[in-house]
Design brief:
Length: 78
């Protein structure tokens, strides 16, 4: 059953695994259509969790997707 909800600290490992799978440098040329260009670390994800800016889509325990939203101060570091 698919679940859409605010992220939790226990989602971080799944988010990092999905990020790694879709990170631009880890993809073939054909796969780069839906890539991730900016890697986030655990501390950055925790900061966004504190801002209520992490949303996840999971099917049971499998991380299907995530969205990060945050204030301008946070994202200006990139």
């Amino acid at each position: 059953m698919m679940e859409l909800r605010l992220g939790k600290v226990e989602d971080i490992s799944g988010i990092l695994a999905l990020q790694e799978k879709n990170l631009y440098n880890n993809l073939t040329t054909e796969q780069r259509a839906g890539f991730v260009t900016t890697p986030f670390n655990e501390q950055q994800i925790k900061e966004l969790l504190n801002q209520k800016g992490v949303f996840v889509a999971k099917d049971n325990s499998v991380m299907l997707g995530y969205i990060f939203a945050g204030d301008w101060h946070f994202f200006s570091q990139f």
